Amino acid sequence: MRRTTIITAFFCTLLLSAQWVNAAPLAESYLTSGQLAAGETALKAQLEKRPEDDEARFGLGVIQFFQSFEHLGGSLYKYGLRTEGVFRGMPAPIGQLLPQNKDPEQVSYADVRQFLQTWINDLKQAENTLSAIKDSDVKLPLHVGLIKVDLAGTGTPIDAAFLMGRVGTPEQVKVAEKFVIGFDRGDADWLAGYCNFLCAWGEVLLAVDGEEIFNCTAHLFFDKVETPYPFLLEGPRNFDSLRRFNRPLISDILAFIHLWRFELKEPKRMPAALAHLEDMQFHAKSMWKYYLAETDDENEWIPNPKQTGVLQIKISQEMVDTWLAVLDETGLVLQGKKLIPFWRGKPGAQGVNLRRVFTEPRMIDPFLWVQGTAAAPYLEEGPITDFASPEMLGRINSTFGGRNFFTIAFWFN
């Protein structure tokens, strides 16, 4: 009797273990149902009970990442982002990604700054969660084609399989429904790096004073705008009217271009943007440490040279080595140890210290940067980055195939 009890307990334990191993991650049910807020609550509760559960922590970071776009998209919908012309002529499901609100609230410049700050805060939270992962063997397999995100805050989240069902073939729908990516420890760094990249741009947007360009041109992008120039809200504002001569619209577009000269509103945000770029470079290096240590081959998002990967793109050791050299050189530029070549005057005489652009910020004028005068305060003599050398450019071109480098760089982060 005792032996029977022990054997029964043993097999029950094996069965439970097998179920636990084969069970979908806790995060997936919330991601595929579009219940991101409920998923965040559930995964935080799981981590309170089991702080060492890095699968739950990974899932929480993914949910928080998608939530950042739900919150941003919800704000844009709330304030009537004018999308009616963006998706015109495209299949109806595409337009459902960002539908136009027919009864939006009036938006002010302060509102725009607030929802940008919320977006940054959300991304920081996701990055902090992902950076806290310690388990080098953590796995998070997800049916990415079934992940639902409500980009407009309308209560109707949409997944890739749904879109394929409206614009793709039945075979494409089946592929989207079954498409699984086995995210692992390196991918946690990959996503954390993208969080930092986006945060850096958000900090730059909030560093500058964009109130004048908002007051003069926000009516091109939002339906109801708080502006000292209410006459701008009268008349046609649809970009389709450019097909006819529309003097007010043309003048608005010219004003938008003319006003690209920004005083600094919060200059301390520029060093914060630099810190995010440095963290991005750190995560980009860290992820390859984990990728190269992998010995499995399970639906890899970014494979090492011995793996295949879900995108069926072969990654060679030469590609990895060249990319790591690019990351090292990027780090030297961000640290101010190497300079960006100046495009005026004698070649190679001086370079721009990019680090000082962030640590000693001044008014941002893209046109004067193109001309060169805006770069003058940051010019120094010193070693020029290898990105300007024929050897490095030749190596990148031969390894990645010229313009393919930018596609690979976007994928690699």
Note down, in words, how this protein is organized.
- The structure is a single chain.
- This protein has 413 residues and is mainly alpha-helical.
- It has two domains: 24-210 and 262-291, no CATH class; 303-412, no CATH class.
- 55% of the residues lie in helices and 4% in strands.
- It has helices at 2-22, 26-33, 36-49, 54-78, 92-95, 109-131, 160-167, 170-178, 185-207, 211-217, 247-258, 269-293, 317-334, 354-359, 366-371, 390-400, 404-412, and strands spanning 139-143, 180-184, 340-341, 351-352, 379-380.
- Helix 12 runs antiparallel to helix 13 (317-334).
- The N and C termini lie far apart (60 Å).
Helix content: 55-70%
Count of DSSP strands:
5
**What is the overall shape?**
globular
Order of helices and strands: HHHHHHEHHEHHHHHEEHHEHH
Mean pLDDT: 88
The total count of helices amounts to 17
Helix/strand class = mainly alpha
Total domains = 2
User: What kind of assembly state do the chains in view correspond to?
Assistant: single chain
Please indicate the percent range of residues in DSSP E strands (runs of 2 or more). Answer: under 5%
Instruction: Order the strands across the largest sheet as they lie in space.
Output: 3-4-5
Largest sheet: 3 strands, antiparallel
Report the C-alpha radius of gyration, rounded.
25 Å
Give the low-confidence spans.
Answer: 1-22
Please give the alpha-carbon distance between the first and last residues.
Answer: 60 Å
Keywords: Signal
